[in-house]
């Protein structure tokens, strides 16, 4: 079977280095906080190009804590794209604010920058652009709308490690950014982990407090916070992997380039790259009106595929009370029936990519 992603291959390519880092943590028995976590935060803020990196338990918490740090909650509205993983809208609801869905662009599948303004009300406080599948949104347009209406921009970078926009890294393009290091992401830990990035000192302090029981220092609780921390074992793994991130993104782009050039089948369209955006290809997402048949065919030919996502956010059961129809989000409604993710991972050997292409091109 050709897998969608191969975490075992990645571990084996770095085994000695990762094992050494993990034993160092275990030998020191400093499992929460401490120098491994601090080192990773420093390297990652340097890598992305933001002043502060605050680690936390996972990407969903990163979004929620940032919203809280900006004092967003009951009575507020936050704009989110109609296509994302549920964490984006869930984080908004968890603060007591209301996620307001905006349809996605029909070519690039990220929040449609040209219609965002229609969804702004006097309650709107923030926009969460999601750099879906690894492709950065048009941040010039979004930032222009945001500054005109005095909105906070929190980038959801869970799928966009190492992606960039006009030479600047995803995560450095708004007021703050949330990353997930879930194992299957481009930069993944050996369990759950996440982080928040910002240049704003006050937001960084508040986010750090919220993530650690409202403490500014031990036993000084300025507020009630929560427990959302990255552990040292995850930080040690991430520090090793971070050194390879640029190379991995480059490999993903090479594979994507090969797919884009070689896949040639009238039933299938390949993803478009936004001109100013350096797509990191967390996922390589095809489109086809014959998706179900292609999935079956690939499965028979031992090639894994997946659907990200079979239902756009507004059409999930948890939002059924809002009674949305396909007409409310026409692009998202169409996309959910057509998208298909095919194998892409940095360690993927050329024979595998060739086999994927040959099979797709034979499909009829
Ligand atoms: C994975 C993901 C998240 C959530 O990250 P977790 O670490 O799993 O909580 C948020 N947003 C998007 C777009 C994601 O893909």
Q: Could you give a short description of this structure?
A:
The protein is α/β, with parallel strands linked by helices and 364 residues long. The chain has helices at residues 7-28, 35-48, 59-69, 87-94, 139-148, 201-211, 232-242, 245-262, 291-300, 330-338, 350-362, and strands spanning 52-56, 77-81, 98-102, 124-127, 152-156, 164-165, 168-169, 176-180, 194-198, 215-217, 220-221, 277-278, 284-287, 339-342.
Describe the overall structure.
The protein is of the alpha/beta class and 364 residues long. It folds into two domains: 7-242, Aspartate Aminotransferase, domain 2 (3-Layer(aba) Sandwich); 245-362, Alpha-Beta Complex (Aspartate Aminotransferase, domain 1), CATH 3.90.1150.10. 38% of the residues lie in helices and 15% in strands. It has eleven helices and 14 strands. The protein has helices at residues 7-28, 35-48, 59-69, 87-94, 139-148, 201-211, 232-242, 245-262, 291-300, 330-338, 350-362; strands at residues 52-56, 77-81, 98-102, 124-127, 152-156, 164-165, 168-169, 176-180, 194-198, 215-217, 220-221, 277-278, 284-287, 339-342. The strands form four sheets. The chain has a seven-stranded mixed beta sheet with strand order 1-9-8-5-4-2-3, sandwiched between helices. Strands 7-6-12 form a three-stranded antiparallel beta sheet, with no helix packed on it. β6 (164-165) and β7 form a beta hairpin. It is globular and about 65 Å long. The model has no long low-confidence stretch (mean pLDDT 97). Pyridoxal-5'-phosphate (PLP) binds next to α3 and α4.
């Amino acid at each position: 079977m050709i897998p969608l992603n191969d975490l075992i291959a990645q571990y084996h390519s770095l085994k000695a280095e990762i094992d050494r880092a993990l034993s160092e943590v275990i030998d020191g028995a400093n499992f929460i906080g401490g120098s491994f976590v601090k080192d990773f935060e420093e390297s990652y803020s340097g890598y992305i190009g933001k002043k502060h990196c605050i680690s936390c338990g996972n990407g969903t918490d990163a979004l929620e804590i940032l919203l809280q740090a900006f004092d967003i909650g009951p009575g507020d509205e936050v704009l989110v794209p109609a296509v994302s993983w549920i964490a984006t809208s869930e984080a908004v609801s968890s603060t007591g604010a209301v996620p307001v869905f905006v349809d996605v662009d029909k070519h690039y599948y990220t929040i449609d920058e040209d219609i965002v303004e229609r969804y702004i009300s006097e309650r709107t406080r923030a926009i969460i652009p999601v750099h879906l599948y690894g492709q950065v949104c048009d941040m010039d347009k979004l930032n222009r709308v945001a500054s005109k209406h005095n909105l906070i921009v929190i980038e959801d970078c869970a799928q966009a490690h190492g992606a960039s926009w006009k030479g600047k890294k995803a995560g450095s393009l708004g007021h703050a950014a949330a990353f997930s290091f879930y194992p299957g992401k481009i930069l993944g830990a050996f369990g759950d982990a996440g982080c928040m990035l910002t240049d704003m000192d006050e937001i960084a302090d508040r986010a750090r407090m919220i993530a650690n029981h409202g403490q500014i220092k031990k036993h000084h609780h300025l507020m009630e916070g929560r427990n959302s921390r990255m552990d040292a074992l995850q930080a040690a793994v991430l520090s090793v992997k971070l050194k390879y991130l640029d190379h991995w993104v480059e490999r993903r782009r090479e594979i994507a380039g090969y797919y884009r050039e070689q896949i040639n089948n009238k039933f299938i369209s390949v993803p478009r790259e936004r001109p100013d955006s350096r797509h990191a290809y967390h996922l390589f997402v095809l489109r086809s009106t014959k998706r179900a048949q292609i999935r079956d065919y690939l499965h028979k030919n031992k090639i894994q595929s997946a659907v990200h996502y079979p239902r756009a956010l507004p059409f999930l059961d948890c939002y059924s009370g809002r009674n949305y129809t396909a007409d409310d989000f026409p692009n998202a409604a169409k996309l959910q029936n057509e998208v298909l993710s095919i194998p892409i991972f940095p360690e993927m050997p050329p024979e595998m990519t060739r086999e994927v292409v040959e099979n797709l091109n034979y499909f009829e």
